[in-house]
User: Fold this.
Amino acid sequence: MTKIILRQLIIMLLSLITLTIFTFSLTRFFPVDSSITGNANVDNAAHLFFHYFDYLKLIVSGDWGYSRINGSDVLKDFLLYFPATIELSFAALIISISIGLPLGVFAARHKNMWQDKLIVSTTLVGYSMPIFWWGMLLVLLFSLTLSLTPVASRIGFEYDILPVTGFMLIDTLISNKPYAVEAFFDALHHLILPAIVLGTIPLAIFTRVTRASMIEALSSDYIRTAKAKGLATSRIIWVHALRNAMIPIITIIGLQISVLITGTLITEIIFSWPGVGKWLLEAVYRRDLVTIHGGLLAIASTVIFINMLIEITTYLINPRLRLQK
Assistant:
C-alpha cells in the first residue's frame, strides 16, 4: 500500500512539474506579470532556467499574481469561487449516481428486452444533447413557464448569509440567522436545476457503464452458484453482483468528478452561477491574462490531485490489483 501511495505521489509531482513548465512556457508567448514570471524576454537558457525556479517558488508560496482588472489576488479569487463549482459538481454527481446506477442495474436485469432498449436509447440521447441547449430548454420550461425553479444565482437576494466555508448549503445551516432553515431550502432550490443540467451526461455514462458491468457480473459463475443455493434475487443483484460490478463504476465516477469540475463553464454561464467557470470566462472577455493563467494552473492541479486519489481508491477496492503488486 505504501509503495502504491508513494508511486502515485511521484506521478503527481512529475505531472505538476510538467504543468508548471507548460504554464511558464505560455508566459514566454503571452507575458502576464513580471512579478510571477520574472523577465519573460530573457533568451539565455541559464537565465531562463533560474527564472523558472523563481516562478516555481512564487507558485508554491501562493503568490500567483494580481488581476489587472480589479487588482485582486488571483489565488484568493480562485479559492473564493471554487467552493461554488465544487458544490454544483458534487450535486450533479449525486443526482447522476442516484439515478444512473439503479437504471443500469434495471437495464441489465432486463437485457435485450424493451425496458433495456428504452433505457439504452434514452441514455444515448442524453449523452448526445448539447448542454447549452438542454440547459436553456429546462430554464424555459421549469423557470419561465412553470415557475418551479429560480433562473439564476445560488440563493435569493432576501437572505443575507455570511460566507464561511463557501459552500452555500453548509453556510446556511451554520448561520445564526433566524431564517437559516428557509435559506437552506432556498439554496437547495437554486441548486437543483443547474445540477440536473450538469449531471445529464454523467448520468447517461453511469447508466451505460453500470449496465455493461452488471451484465458481465450476472453471467459469472459465482452468480450461478448463488442462484443454485436459492438466494433471493434481490440479494444476488444488489449484494453479490453489484459489489463486484462496482470496480469499473467507481473508476468512471472518479474520472467524471474531474470532468464535472472542468466542464461547469457552460452551466455556470446559463444559470449565472458564481463559480470558477464563470470567473474564468469573464477573465477571457476582459483579457485578464493573469487570472487566466492562475485559473488554468489551479484547475489543472486539482484534476491531477483527483486522478491520484482515483488511482489509490481503485487499488484499494480491487483485490486483483493488490495481488499483482
